[in-house]
């Protein structure tokens, strides 16, 4: 009988709850990212353009946006605005169960050294790369220079229509 108990114990041990087995750590498993509300206003300055979108994380693990690339330019920077001053950052957090809002007057993408400025009606392909998650490719529409979001369909990868109409603040012009 002791042999049967040992075998039963081994079988039960193999049926454990699997906590911590998901990529990333935490009870909710890996990040689950989606993008909504992406747009790029037609730039006023022909050398730079700002990009705006919201990255949602429905998963149970934090992630971070660590780099961005685009067919528009060889250089896309991530900026945050603190006390009316822009500064380049190396990453932007995407909290578990939350969102990273890239919006006018706050954190945003900066497309620099444009060979040719995009015009309203163009679509720009952007690849977002993350610390944990696989990259997301987003088709970003170029809107009028005064566009503030919330008036178009979702153009992001993997997303619904959450997050539309959240900014609406007047934007600032950016220069290199």
From TrEMBL:
Protein name per its UniProtKB record: Copper chaperone PCu(A)C
Ranges in a coiled coil: none
PANTHER family assigned to the protein according to its UniProt record, in alphabetical order: BLR7088 PROTEIN, COPPER CHAPERONE PCU(A)C
Composition skew (Basic and acidic residues), residue ranges: 149-176
Region called Disordered, residue ranges: 145-176
């Amino acid at each position: 009988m002791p042999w049967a108990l040992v075998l039963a114990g081994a079988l039960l041990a193999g049926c454990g709850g699997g906590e911590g087995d998901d990529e990333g750590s935490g009870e909710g498993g890996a990040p689950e990212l989606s993008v909504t509300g992406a747009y790029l206003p037609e730039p006023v300055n022909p050398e730079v353009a700002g990009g705006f979108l919201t990255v949602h994380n429905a998963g149970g693990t934090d992630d971070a946006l660590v780099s961005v690339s685009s067919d528009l330019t060889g250089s896309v920077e991530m900026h945050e605005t603190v006390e009316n001053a822009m500064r380049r950052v190396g990453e932007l957090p995407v909290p578990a169960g939350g969102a990273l809002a890239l919006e006018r007057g706050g954190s945003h993408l900066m497309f620099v050294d444009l060979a040719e400025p995009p015009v309203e009606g163009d679509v720009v392909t952007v690849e977002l790369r993350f610390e944990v998650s696989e990259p997301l490719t987003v088709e970003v529409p170029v809107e009028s220079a005064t566009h503030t979001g919330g008036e178009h369909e979702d153009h992001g990868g993997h997303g619904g229509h959450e997050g539309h109409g959240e900014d609406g603040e007047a934007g600032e012009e950016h220069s290199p």
